[in-house]
Known about the structure:
This protein is α+β, with helices and mostly antiparallel strands. It is built from 21 helices and 42 strands.
Amino acid sequence: MLPIYGRLDQIHMKKSATGRAVACLLIFLVACAAQTTNISLVEPLPQDSGTSGLKQTLVRLNTTARLLQIVAHPDDEDGGMLTLESRGKGVSAALLTLTRGEGGQNKVGSNLFDVLGVLRTLELTASDRYYGVEQRFTRVSDFGFSKNPEETFQKWHGHDVALADVVRVIRTYRPDVIIPRFSGTDRDGHGHHQASSLLAREAFRAAADPNRFPEQIKEGLQPWQAKKLYVGNVCGFGASSCAAENYTVRLNTGEQDPQLGMTYVQFALEGLKHQLSQGAGGWSVDSGPHYTYYKLVDSLVSSPKDKDGHEKDFFDGIDVTLPGLVSRLGSEESKMPGLKARLVALQSKVDEAAKSSDPAQPLLAGAEITQKLIEEVRQSPISQGVKDGLLVDLQTKQAQFEHAANCALDMQLRLTVDAPTASSAEQAFMAVPGQTFKVIAESTSAHNADVKQIALDLPTGWKSKQISFRPIVDGQKYQATFEVTVADSAQYTRPYWHREDPESETVFSVNDASYATLAFPPLPVHAHAVYETKGKDGMVRAVGMTKYKETGTEEGKRAIAVAPPFSVSIAPATEAIATSQKGSTEVTVEISSNIATKSDAALRLELPQGWGAEPAMQQVRFDQAGESKSFKFKVTPHDLREGRHQLQASLGYGGKSYNLGYSVVTRNDLDTFYYYQRAVQRVSIVDVKVPTDLRVGYIMGAGDDISTVLRQIGISVTPISAEDIAKENLSSYGTIVLGIRAYDTQKDLILNNKKLLDYVSNGGRLVVQYNASVGDFNSGHYTPYPAQLSRARVTVEDAPVQILAPQDRLMQFPNQISSHDFEGWVQERGLYFMDNWDNQYTPLLACQDPGEPLQKGGLLRAKYGKGTYIYTGYAFFRQLPAGVPGAIRLYVNLLTP
């Protein structure tokens, strides 16, 4: 058996359209093998190793069924259904999520936009490990809540951008059945949800039409017609019953699975809990029956149905047996006369493994048969479309045979950088172009398999030299040491998608088309070991890892990644300056080094015309890799007229200039990836009057950067932890602010809410920002007078805003607010407005989405005792970090007594 990765990198370098298409197909096969054999950056789930892993893979080997679910966002997926199909029935399943959820709110931190998209991709792929599925994405972004598919497609530059990517996934993954999670109707709510189903319906037929997206056909992709199309949300999510005419398939995801130790939906929920930024960490589901319903809406096959028109399974009417693959040849069957016999022999090896006390032998024999079949198919005269389809299925089977045999033998391979354990994830080893480092590969087996070879699989241009190879521990363990040299042209390990302006662009640019639709680009360093047991050869694979200290004595691991010699970033990334502020501001440049410098590097700021920096240049030197240092500059603007400007840091070293910085995005329950951005600070000079001597207490909720911006414009802000409210002297603050979703996330805030209201009654000013748990908020009665929170929102960021009480002090002091202050807002006007309130409240603003009723509950003010209570659902948490001048002026007014 040949390692896939080496072939991938050789073909990936081809410049022809056919070469790119083959590269795309092989990248898909690598992703498939990684999913099937659990090549992950973290340890495999216990259910995917040993006896449990063997039993589940034997189920997968018995079927060629392929399923694709299509959804809009991370957490939309029907995890229970996917887990039942993949783990319970052995179906090869993939999840196509149109967006990465970058437009949502973050319930575990303040990161938003594209760095949130990287985090949610990591969270979703962690969930996928439980579902047992592969992951795909399109280029379109989550731009926030959308109320209808028409607005969604308008934001996505028409529907063809997303449709092309859906078609591409279908043509590469080649599913038998396509299952959008949503119905494509108003029942779905979110416009993105509706759009995902509408796209799936159209792509079902479009993927088979060579005249649709012919550029893909020119690349070498082949048309593909799935057999059946179902839609979901036909009875409402979580419905305990459904009218017979509304569904075709009903699945019980509440069945117990002996290998999982729980029901399918419970196991899926264990995966979903990794999506902490969505608030999924505390979700649970009881044991017992849980049903999910889907309706057949298009089909090319006739399937048996009962008297009510119901099927038993998505694949009714489709031959998904191993020997059934011969039907893919159709009229070309005579071109491969031995195929059916080989497939029957393949099935016999699966059957033999299921009954054998030594299943590794028939499994390795099955892998050998599959490899020969793959080579025969490649050399056969059958048409390219049929050939590609067979290769997808056979490569999947080869990976499954390989994984099952490794489970039976408890065969493992680990590949680790030969370096001291780093003190943190941020300081863990990063490979640098041109660098040489050592790695150690260790294979282990509980069955004394004879390891004949351990080899590295590296990208084109990289070099490796084996230093040693030896058996240890009585032949149960083999160790090899390699010296690896990174290619000078090596690509950094970074997202292959990007946006220049995440606040306005709604479609990502793809840097490398070969990776299009994958969750992340392939990792650079892999290894494989070839072993022999009882005359049969096998292979086990591994991803290269580096170690770091996680918490206490625990050790964390992350995949070897390629990075620039220096990571350069500016803190803060955005700066707001009031026009009244004279003199200089301080800019901090953070530099992390992945090398020890041989000479000084020169750090400079590139400034707008007429601006000055002190000092003009600073010398930088690092004694060892993994060091981080901060350098401060005093920056003086040329003038303080309202406007936007940009600064950039640049580090000169070795004749090159470095101005990229990366953030390590990880958690102890997730894999690790990196978010890159230029070392740029966006400066917004704002004509805002700031009250003197105002002291603000800020009680953080789910996390936002509003307090940072307030400090930048000269307001004194003190953080108050929710647990300290009881002992805090609140009267020392002129205004107290509750961060976004504070009641949702801070239980101590709820316990001390009366103290906050007493603070208002005694003359204080309380500004409450939006909360998302509507029912909990309303039942908690946290407001001084009755008011009902709703899910009402205005999603159009430039929707006209009416000032309902222009003479109100809040609209007058210290800044005069006009319609001009609502220009240039980003993503949305607001969310979670009040829809009913006592007449003690005064609504101050009103706005509406096109064709919808006027929303007046986004900013309410009430006098309470001697003080003032303010509720706002306007999206200041997006506007202030973006430096929107009018939003900053209005927010200062909210704070000013």
